[in-house]
Amino acid sequence: MADSSSPTATGSCLCGGIRYQVRGELGAMVACHCSRCRKANGSAFQAVVPVATDGFELLAGAELLAGYESSPGVHRMFCRRCASPLYSRRDAMPALLRLRVGTLDTPLPAGPAMHVFVGSKADWYEIHDGAEQYPTRPGE
Question: Does residue 140 lie in a domain region?
Fold first, then answer.
């Protein structure tokens, strides 16, 4: 269960219609370079932090939240007005959300802890930080 004290982080979508808070610990940032994440974000990679589902709370804009099942059991949630990607969830992991760090209004203390799916990263992007790199997911 997530910490019930003051919020650890707050965030919002581009238009500000959806606002949220996170209570409890933010996990380590992961940069995913798979083709689905690149397409979903229109960028070289997607940066996420894992958060406990029960620690995530919508403060405004629940009616604007929409989802897309990008592969079986994987749901990408976004604002239906401005299309900001907010988080993803997996049916097989109901206690965890992968929060898109670009929507955070709270600064993070560190950059990516790891890069995953670098075996399929964009040819035009080079990774220059010291974070661990994995061709797929660690352990696969």
Answer: no
The three-point CA angle 52-54-60 to 5° equals 110
Q: Which helix (H) or strand (E) holds 86?
A: strand 85-90
pLDDT tens string for the chain (140 positions)?
A: 455 566 789 999 999 999 999 999 899 999 999 999 999 989 999 999 999 999 999 999 999 999 999 999 999 999 999 999 999 999 999 999 999 999 999 999 889 999 999 999 999 999 999 999 999 988 76
- pTM for this entry: 0.88
| b/e 36-54 (16+ beta carbons within 10 angstroms → b) | bbbebbeeebbbbbbbbee
Instruction: Note down the domain range covering 43.
Output: 9-133
Number of domains in the chain: 1
Amino acid code (one letter) for 43: S
Q: How many residues does the chain have?
A: 140
Residue recorded with tokens 């897309």: 68
As beta bridge partners, residue 104 has 11
And the tokens for 99?
A: 């929060």
Asked whether residue 39 is assigned to any structural domain, the reply reads yes
* 79: CATH: 2.170.150.70
What's the one-letter identity of residue 49?
A: V
